[in-house]
Amino acid sequence: MRSNFGINASADLQVLSDDQCKHILGAAMEILERTGVVYHDKESLEILEKAGCSVEGKRVRIPVKLVEKALRTVPSKVTLCNSRTGKRVMEMEGNNAYFGSGSDTPFFIDPYTNNRIPTSKKTVTMASKVLDALPNIDFIMSLGIVQDVPQEIYDRHQFEAMVLNTSKPIVITAIDVEGYSDIIKMCEIVAGGEKELQRNPFMTLYAEPISPLQHPGDSAQKLVLAAKKKLPVVYTPCPMFGGTVPITMAGGLATGLAESLSGLVLNQETSEGSPFIMGGVFTIMDMKTTIFAYGAPEFHLLQAGLADISRFLDIPMFGTCGCTDSKVVDEQAAIEGAISILTTSMSGANLNHDVGYIEHGNTASLEYLTVCDELIGFARRITRGIEVNEETLALDVIDKVGHGGHYLAQEHTMNHYKTETYYPELFQRKIYENWVKEGEKNLFQRSNDKVINILETHKPDPLPKDVEEKLRQIVIDAEKKLKG
Fold this sequence. Notes:
CATH topology of the largest domain: TIM Barrel
Helix content: 40-55%
Structural class: alpha/beta
Oligomer: single chain
Number of strands: 22
Radius of gyration: 23 Å
């Protein structure tokens, strides 16, 4: 850790030096030029061959000059907006850190019964409503797969459940390019047209390559469509160190970076200047259990290192935090969530997802989401640092109070106590007797109370009725096409 003492001191974390980032980048470029990557999409192969890549079947070797070109043309900043107002609420650049949930878990902890149940359109609706209400959550992902509809078109239902229940920016997943295209149409309806959505995007796609060094057909097609539509795209590998990439951190980082950069080249060759977000979920394969570990110390270290690389490349970063390997919201979950959120906040990754994941990404918990919302507030206060100026040094106030006095009644205290101090809601500081009077509730019970209260009282900003009807029609049309 180091502190940057300027006008405002902020705590930040740097894992990799610029020389190390340069070394890893060089290794990634050598992988692309020597080993190459595989694209399972005809149009993508044609775009890359025309750009000057060596194409042998589905294997593509990408020359360094094309990677360097893509790094010059990709924007260094990506903006996402409020879907109701068009206001720009997320400016992803530099060390700006934003936080949101993950997507597509198959299970959900029902806050009313505490049972682990399959996810559905109802659970995604519940999650979206809670995400909309939490003050430290900046964007939403579905926090569940809609499993109670035809699976070939669940993505349209998923987006509908989200956009009806939040005005915050949305990170979507899509089954295929047809699903992505339908969701773009839905977004254009909400935004007021194609140009309006391009000008004030409130949605970005999440897509993935497959480690090691492969781009599925649907992922490549989505990259191409995002570029043609000039819409933001998150393209992030999920390498398993020791499983799908080398177990050594440097080798795994280089492989994962090569996967991201090969996606970037395709995206930029399709349309220069298209907004692109790199990053990923980089962690180990636990050799005892074979799980993709969300609570491992290596996970936090790799995510912070990846943030250093993205900053070195000046590309916005998709990070991961607020998740745990624990099966329940217990001490392990709180510890792993706190470490990951603080590490991510200090590393400066921009678009940080998976808040609310338990059971290494298999299950969503609204209680854990709510606990992590408080932890994000803690982390932001730490990374905001200590402001040092004439007003905060308070020499006149110190002289006025003098010896043996107190500062409770000072105007200076009243002016600054809310901004200098973070006041949590769930993490209580009450005296013991008051805690007993209020039912002796533990952290999970208090978070459950908050979740239930949000579900029963929070009213997200609505969309106009005619917009809702048009969105519903796209979903209905997808269902008819599937049947027909």
